[in-house]
DNA sequence: GATAGGATGCTCT
DNA sequence: GAGCATCCTATCC
């Protein structure tokens, strides 16, 4: 059960389609990334769950919401590059930068199915019993791909960096794409910018963020 | 299957 | 110093 190996290499048409997709609106890019395959360090993951984040101003959940900082600088650059950040004191998360230079929108890669390098993926995720849990969550996905800050800012579409992104082997039918609120965000929770493949076992569990206690003292 | 709580350190105010 | 775009384990169904 895996994708056909030895299939056609990344075609010029396929890459240019992805180029155009990532240069466009972040929501379109997010939907289009479902089914695409990310490869790094000899493991490949077919994306089953992503989230869209807008740039400055409009989206309080976005790292770029309050403007450019050293951490989010990559988001302000050209599309098709990796934005990798460290969170919760121990985890890395991988995003794909989208939209024109200066817009700072990006798509968080939340989960997927390991379709190549399964043995290596299992070694990188000791204690995981089910293969479907190997990359079921944004930090788990970066663990399987063995990514950290060293790949931040690298290009994904031109085969020059440690990460590569390839078009979907089989086109994802639009009706199988579901949408809902994003996971774990404090602001903008009402924006349904999480996208996933309906019924796919590798999609991460959704838990609403606990409501914050009432406002601070005067 | 669901939920609760702890781990852990960078980033920005 | 507060706040995280999370994961894992234990516990209770």
**Number of DSSP-assigned strands:** 8
The geometry reads as globular
Relative helix content? 10-25%
| N-to-C SSE string, H for helix and E for strand | HHEEEEEHHEEE
Strand-pairing-aware structural class: alpha+beta
Biggest β-sheet strands, sense, barrel: 8 strands, antiparallel
Mean pLDDT over the residues? 90
Radius of gyration computed on alpha carbons: 17 Å
Please mark out the parts with pLDDT under 50 across 5 or more consecutive residues, or reply none: 1-8, 214-218
Q: Helical region count?
A: 4
CA-CA gap between termini: 59 Å
Strand content: 15-25%
In short:
The chain is an alpha+beta fold.
Could you describe the 3D structure shown?
By secondary structure, the chain is an alpha+beta fold. The protein has four helices and eight strands, in the order H-H-E-E-E-E-E-H-H-E-E-E. Strands 1, 2, 3, 4, 5, 6, 7 and 8 form an eight-stranded antiparallel beta sheet that branches. The structure holds a DNA duplex (13 and 13 nucleotides).
List the helices and strands and how they pair.
Layout: H1 12-23, H2 26-33, E1 37-40, E2 43-53, E3 82-87, E4 91-98, E5 105-116, H3 118-124, H4 138-145, E6 163-166, E7 177-180, E8 194-197
The protein binds a DNA duplex (13 and 13 nucleotides) through residues 51, 53, 61-63, 66, 69-71, 85-91, 93, 95, 108, 110, 127, 137-140, 182-186, 205, 207.
